[in-house]
Specification:
The protein folds into two domains: 6-122, D-amino Acid Aminotransferase, Chain A, domain 1 (2-Layer Sandwich), CATH 3.30.470.10; 133-285, D-amino Acid Aminotransferase, Chain A, domain 2 (Alpha-Beta Barrel). It contains seven helices and 16 strands. It has helices at residues 26-30, 52-65, 74-88, 158-170, 213-224, 236-240, 272-285, and strands at 6-9, 12-15, 34-35, 38-43, 46-50, 93-101, 115-122, 133-141, 175-179, 192-197, 200-204, 229-232, 244-249, 253-260, 263-264, 296-297. It is an alpha+beta fold. Strands 1, 2, 3, 4, 5, 6, 7 and 16 form an eight-stranded antiparallel sheet that branches. Strands 8, 9, 10, 11, 12, 13, 14 and 15 form an eight-stranded mixed sheet that branches. The structure holds pyridoxal-5'-phosphate. Pyridoxal-5'-phosphate binds next to helix 5. Pyridoxal-5'-phosphate (PLP) is lined by residues 37, 153, 187, 190-192, 210, 212-215, 249-250.
Length: 298
């Protein structure tokens, strides 16, 4: 990871090496933290953050699920992120705000534990690269909606993702894919999935997934390309018979899928509709589409 100069930590800009926490930090032990993954892109008018308010809104929603009171307002965090980008003089970066139950008391109930908040950013290219990737359907099911709150971005949820990622890597695949507790297609360990069939776009309905901001972006921009998009329950058989498939998420952006288990999708190549969505997404995040400039914050 490429280090930058400063990290925002509990209201102050500190040196990268000084953003430290105690070993008895509550979240470190039990996974009750909340976080976001956001990207800033280089645009004609300078570095701009994509859908910043939507990400911060989700951060506060995730915190509310854990009854965590973030000791800063959404506006304060918004300002801190924009300042941090300027201070570190980066044009394009990945931004990671995180709020954790800190050091103060142990025991599972976090009530009364101080909440620490940090914002870290670093330059990070598309997480899974640009080429169509191989995907393994994992033996683990996606977190059950009655075991936790899947649409909250809670640190502990990512143990599920870690296990699936380790399994995929061991089997020689680049990424994994979860089915939900009913056996329908859910999502990747850190991104949502879409498929194209007969020129129409489909993505799993919400319920067992983190319905991402990129997923929302894709659903909205598909209309501009004249593509009908629909949320529905998708079986694995349907997905494997799809004309095209891709992942969508802040970290991976729009990432074509070339193979699911042993089944090639579109002969392992990026499909035309995926390419169109990917191109438009890149234009939007780089401030080249007037209609969507309000999604960018300088
Ligand atoms: C499990 C999971 N699903 C989907 C996404 C995609 O969400 P977004 O598009 O908001 O980055 C993420 C990333 O935050 C994720 O971790």
């Amino acid at each position: 990871m490429k280090e930058v100069e400063k990290i925002w930590f509990n209201g102050r800009f500190v040196d990268w090496k000084d953003a430290e926490i105690h070993i008895l930090t509550h979240t470190l032990h039990y996974g009750g933290g909340v976080f976001e993954g956001i990207r800033a892109y280089d645009t004609e008018k300078g570095s701009a953050v994509f859908r910043l308010r939507d990400h911060l809104k989700r951060l506060f929603y995730s915190a509310s699920c854990l009854e965590m009171e973030i000791p800063f307002s959404q506006k304060e965090l918004e300002k801190a992120i924009l300042q941090l980008i300027k201070i570190n003089q980066v044009k394009e970066c990945y931004i990671r705000p995180i709020a954790i139950f800190g050091y103060g008391k142990m025991g599972l109930n976090p009530k009364g534990t101080p909440v620490d908040v940090a914002i870290v950013l670093w330059p990070w290219k598309a997480y899974l690269g640009e080429k169509p990737i191989s995907v393994k359907v994992t033996k683990y099911i996606r977190i059950h909606p009655k075991s936790t709150i899947p649409d909250a971005k809670i640190t502990g949820h990512y143990v599920n993702s870690i296990l699936a990622s380790l399994e995929a890597q061991k089997a020689g695949f680049e990424e994994s894919l979860f089915l939900d507790f009913e056996g329908f297609v859910a999502e990747g360990p850190g991104e949502n999935i879409f498929m194209v069939k007969n020129k129409r776009l489909f993505t799993p309905s919400s319920g067992s997934i983190l319905p991402g901001i990129t997923r929302d972006t894709v659903l909205k921009i598909a209309k501009d390309l004249g593509i009908k998009a629909e949320e529905k329950k998708i079986t694995l058989e349907e997905l494997k018979r799809a004309d095209e498939a891709f992942f969508a998420g802040t970290a991976v952006e729009i990432c074509p899928i070339g193979r699911i288990d042993q089944t090639l999708i579109n002969n392992g190549r990026m499909g035309g509709i995926t390419q169109k969505i990917k191109n438009l997404y890149q234009r939007i995040v780089h401030g080249k589409e007037r209609k969507y400039l309000n999604w960018l914050q300088l």
